[in-house]
Protein 1
Amino acid sequence: MKKSVIESLSECPLFRGIDVSELQLLAEKYMTINVCEKYETIISENNYTRSLGIIIKGSATVTKHSGETEILMSILKKGDIFGMATLFYEEDNYLTEIKACEKVTMAVFSKDNVRAMLSLYPQINENYITILSEKIHFLNKKISTYTRAETIQKVAFFILQNTDDDRNSVTLPYSITKVADALGVGRASVYRAFETLENDCIISRDGKKITILDYNALEKI
């Protein structure tokens, strides 16, 4: 198993507290590696297998279709997990679509292999429950923000939830129009929010690349 893969898995919250040597054995027994090319669909609402995925390299968008509208839900980056919501829930359709923004390498664990790991490793079991709890808390916060907040607060929250690992920047996978659709507000309002954040020296923007100049100020919004 490549050292870079094990290092990426060790940074994943699912394997928090698992020794690297043990993780090596675990990966060899339970994991497979899949690669998707840029713009390739990783999972669609009608085409998926019940498995758990972890991004090892690259990034992908998570979107949901509402009629003709495609709503951006989140951006998956290195170490992010997907598939937890449907792994043990017998729903006919996957809730979202996941598509590679660039070439993506991912670790994949089948449903049976995840069940085996949860049974054999109490720490992974606890981590799994913790991650699900964090996701519920995050979704509640997201619903609260998107239903009651002003546009600038929605934009600030959107930037914060999609920051790179260093928390200093965001690369938008979509145009401002699609970001506006994801936030449920008008495009002009999103442009004004970005302009306000730039004028206040909280962010700078160059096309789809957003640099965070004042992280604390962005959080306070």
Protein 2
Amino acid sequence: MSDPPRHPFVTVRLRPDQLELAQLRLWELGATGLEERDETTLIRESAPGRAVLVAAFPDQAAAQYALNEIRQEYEAEIGYVPHEDWATEWRRGFSAQRIGRRLLLHPSWEEVQSEPDDVVLMIDPENAFGSGDHETTRLVLKVLDKWVAGGERVLDVGCGSGILSIAALRLGAASAVAIDIEEDAVEVACRNAALNAVDCRIEVSTRPLDDIDGVYDIVLANIATRVLLRMPNELQARIAPGGLLVLSGIVHGERDELLAAYAPMPLEECLEEGEWCACILRPAQS
């Protein structure tokens, strides 16, 4: 009888002050999920004063490649969890949270007590990025809570779980186009759209940005800075007159380089949390 399939993950042990950059590096290496954990979960005990990151990968080859790269900088190893346990394992650590003035975010398996003015957002990230736990996602959700007034057209580039475009729709945006290079992310985003009863107002696909037509009142891109640096022309072309471009996934030290790449778009606002920031830009006035 063959052994049951196992799901690979890479465990990284490091100092707490190294967490932010290590998280960014793991996403860049193709992680499909990332969680900061302690010694009570699937891993052996961590030393006092040390932090632990656990990154999920789609297959053995991807995990091995990430391990070879990341252990040049940090202590790391591959671990496994039985495939039949992984469907419930990713739920660990996700719970209800309030973001901004209006948003109440929770996973589908957890009931919440909402207030009359709450905009409730139900998200199951599964193996796609976007649970609301990461600073980069929370920052964009705060932007949406502040800026979505109703009726906007939204473009979500690198949508992951769909959390951002779905939040915009729940806040009153009229329609959304969400794209991601990962088929798994598209499937997760479609399921989350249905959970939030906005599936009739969102188009989710793996279409490349170059194939997206029209302009949008709000363009979202929560992607690693190295990717954003290659996209200024494509993203700027999709912004409607008077619209907003929201860029996130930016470490503080990368902000000036990013803003220079997107010049002459003026910076409307910059939100910060921990080592991360999100920049709101507007088209330059002609």
